[in-house]
Amino acid sequence: MPRLSLSLVPLMLAVAACGDKPDDTGEPPVVDTETQSTWYADADADGYGDPSSSAQAVEPPSGHVENDEDCDDADDAIHPGADEICDGIDNDCDGAVDDEDDAEDASIWYADTDGDGFGDINATTRACEPPSGYGSDSADCDDADSAIHPSATELCDGVDNNCDGETDEDAAVDASTWYSDADEDGWGDPDSTTLACEQPTGFLDDASDCDDGDPLVYPGASERCDGKDTDCDGQNVEHDVPAVYTSIQTALDHAKKGDAICVAAGSYNERIQFQGEDVLVEGLAGSAATILDGEGLGSVVTITNGESAVATLRGFTITGGFSEEGGAGVLVEGADATLEDLVISDNFCNPSRYSCWGTGLQLEDSESTARQLVIRDNVCHGSCRGVGLASISGDNHLEDIEISGNLARSDSYSLGTGINAYETELSITGLALRDNAMVAVEVGASSSAACMKTWYSVVEIRNAVFAGNTLEIPRQDGWGGCIDNSHTALSMENVTISGNHALAQTVYGVGLFHVGDHLSLDNVVVSFNTADAEQVLGTGITVVDTDASTTWDITYSDLWQNDMDWYSYSGISEPTGTDGNIAEDPLYLDVSSSSAAAWDLHLDTGSLLIDAGDPTILDADGSVSDMGAFGGPDGAWQE
Q: 538: which residues sit within 8 A by CB, 6+ positions away?
């Protein structure tokens, strides 16, 4: 190493001595503070300084930083920019704590507006602690109703009370008990039940059926001769004739309401009276094999003591009756009855003073039901009002009825051989009215309607044939050779009026005569009706329309080859060409017989009447209804 020159030593010492001495004024030397900064202690080394601990220096002292933004220099997780969390600390040093500063880990709380302890998932807030009116549950499905929540009891009220997504479940606390109606008779089985708020298909709120496997067994049903308690009254009383009782009337004398009188096949020469008892009298082998013959001694069957519709007569031929007033075969007056599977034939009425009403069957002041009746070959001599059937001052409903071969031998004023309806309500579905005759046997015997006389009534006829009936009053005027409708609201739907004949001095409407009230014809065929008369005023339809009370609607009907299809007193033209009405050959299946009563009035395949009826009425196959008796939903009634 080179040696330091001795000559430089005194100079260096002198300079060093000079630096330690005050200046000429004797004051300490001046330090330049403009180049120094304030530095803040960062004890937790999080990059943020403690504002309460600082130092001045040109360069940052160790453990110091330039900022003073740390609010807790003992915790490196606390500083500006840190995530605010729910811990009661101002983590990001912005002066706000937890909920005041949108903590990152704040919980979601759900509004509980109705105070039921369950929140609304669609009404939320975030907070570290639950705000007032909020909770942690989000399962409430109606936060406006405190009675609706997951722990609520399900009720039958159209509301999802327990928020399970289903309404009015079968398990609802107030669900009703419903009873199975397997046989569809309108009565429920007490041993087959289910719970439900609404009535399930196949169930009822009734539990009184005693045999849900038989649709003919239910409370109030007509008793049957079948060994069953048909009416569910806890009793099954059957009176056998002739095994137990030698006569039907003797059995009736011992019967009580709900009993059944079961009559074996055979002929019984007696007349019977129900005597006010609601019982069943049934011919076990049906009408063809069970004959009840009155032997000309009076009405064969009398139901006149306030019996109800439970009183039932079924399965007999009723014959040999005689009366001077009416009801020679069956008389129902001031009572209701159910009549089924009866042949009412060869009964005779000869009025001694006034008229004879309903030689075969008279229904007066009655609300009766009848089905499957054949009323034929009954005879009235005198003033006759309905030799087959008379319905007077009641409301009667008939189905599947044949009225044929009945004869009115009129010696005065007679009205309606087949049917007479007077001041009554009458409905018939499925009617074959053929070969009935009104014949004057005295000069001056004025009569009308070999088929049906309706006056001051309400009558509905659906699916019916009026054919081959004859009015013979050669020296008198004939009003309505077949049908005479006077001051009656008569409605006819799917009806054929064909091949009827009138012999009279003047003929007014062989097919149908109408005066007063309203006539409604829909899908009706009026054809081949004829007359022998000095003057003919309509052999199809005649209306006396000079009075404003006479009105009519004729729609989708056919007038064809009557001697005179239409006659109106005021000159109104016939309805053909309007409202679906036509004039076409019906093309019946068979009109070869000389007797129109024997014609087959079904339509042949080429008939223009097929599917030409009222489009609001459908045949059974779903097509537009055919015109005539065999169209409409019940068109197969005689097949």
A: 507, 508, 509, 510, 513, 562, 564, 565, 566, 567
3-state secondary structure of 312: strand
How many angstroms separate the CA atoms of 254 and 261, rounded?
10
The residues, ordered by sequence, that sit 6+ positions from 338 with a Cβ below 8 Å of its Cβ are: 222, 309, 310, 311, 312, 313, 314, 368, 369, 370
- The three-point CA angle 621-623-625 to 5° equals 105
Would you state the pLDDT for residue 19? 42
What whole-number distance in Å separates Cα of residue 441 and Cα of residue 424? 29
CB 581 within 8 A of CB 575: yes
pLDDT at 14: 36
CB 601 within 8 A of CB 628: yes
CB under 8 Å to 449, separation ≥6 — which residues? 415, 416, 417, 438, 471, 479, 480, 481, 482, 483, 484
* Closest of 69, 101, 95 to residue 83, by C-alpha: 101
What is the pTM (predicted TM-score) of this model? Answer: 0.72
Tell me: cis bond preceding 242? Omega within 30 of 0 counts.
Answer: yes
Q: What is the DSSP letter of 413?
A: -
C-alpha angle 343-345-348 in degrees, rounded to nearest 5:
150
Nearest to 613 by CA among 527, 522, 551, 490: 522
Contact at 8 Å (CB) between 90 and 96? yes
Q: Are 317 and 291 in contact (CB under 8 A)?
A: yes
> Distance (Å, rounded) from C-alpha 69 to C-alpha 283?
114
Q: Is 21 helix (H, G, I), strand (E, B) or coil?
A: coil
The first and second tokens of residue 416, run together, are 């309606």
Distance separating the N- and C-terminal Cα atoms of the chain: 149
Q: Could you tell me whether strands 64-65 and 120-127 are parallel, antiparallel, or unpaired per DSSP bridges?
A: unpaired
Distance in angstroms (rounded) separating the CA atoms of residues 553 and 603: 24
Q: Which long-range contacts (CB under 8 A, 24 or more apart) does 195-199 make?
A: 195/170, 195/171, 196/170, 197/156, 197/168, 197/169, 197/170, 197/172, 198/156, 198/168
Residue with tokens 């009572």: 335
Q: Are 595 and 468 in contact (CB under 8 A)?
A: yes
What is the sign, positive or negative, of the torsion defined by CA atoms of 402, 586, 469, 463? Answer: positive
pLDDT at 54: 84
Rounded to an integer, what distance in angstroms lies between the CA atom of residue 36 and that of residue 339? Answer: 128
- Bridge-based pairing of strands 120-127 and 107-111 is antiparallel
Tokens of 271: 């007349």
- Cα-Cα-Cα-Cα dihedral sign, residues 438, 443, 444, 445: negative
Mean pLDDT by 10 residues, the chain (639 residues): 38 37 53 75 84 87 86 84 81 76 78 85 84 85 86 87 85 90 94 92 94 90 80 83 96 91 97 95 97 97 96 97 97 97 98 92 98 98 96 97 97 93 98 96 81 97 98 87 96 98 91 95 97 90 88 96 86 90 97 97 98 97 97 91
Tell me if residue 191 falls in helix, strand or coil. strand
Placement of tokens 């399965």 in the chain: 315
Backbone angles phi and psi of 8, in degrees to 5: -95, -15
3-state secondary structure of 251: helix
Please state the separation of Cα 97 from the chain's center in Å: 69
What single letter denotes the amino acid at residue 105?
A: D
Cα–Cα distance between 515 and 391 in angstroms, integer?
Answer: 20
Q: At 477, phi and psi to the nearest 5?
A: -80, 140
Closest C-alpha to 163, from 145, 142, 144, 146 = 142
